[in-house]
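Render this sequence as a predicted structure.
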Amino acid sequence: MVTQKLINELSYKVVGACIEVHKLAGPGLYEEVYHQCLEKEFNLLGLKYQSELEIPFIYKGQYIDCKLKCDFLIENLIVLELKSVSEIHQIHKAQTMNYMHLLKVPRSILVNFNVTNLYHEGCEFFAAKSFKDLPKE
């Protein structure tokens, strides 16, 4: 059963994997480097994920072929969006939240690898309204 506790524990594992990649690779590389390293890390952790998942977009009842892709969908519960930029902008946050809502998952995480301390400077968490409705335990 999906609970807030399960989502929080999974978020902790995902961020831990990001921290491990950041610790070994360092800041300032292209996003694709971190993406490929995270695939290896998620495999080592035994996490189920989809990489570069195409997100269906429906406009007024019709499918729009616009090639929206999120970096990772983890365990069908968390969208992980990666950046390697000098500064996170509101549009990055909006993109991450939109992907979460379009995929109807309870949590999304935005990670910027171009920082010195990934945990304190590079991670932002977003919760869908549905997250509050999940049982706590």
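Summary. The first helix runs from residue 4 to 25. Residues 4-133 form a domain with the tt1808, chain A fold (CATH 3.90.1570).
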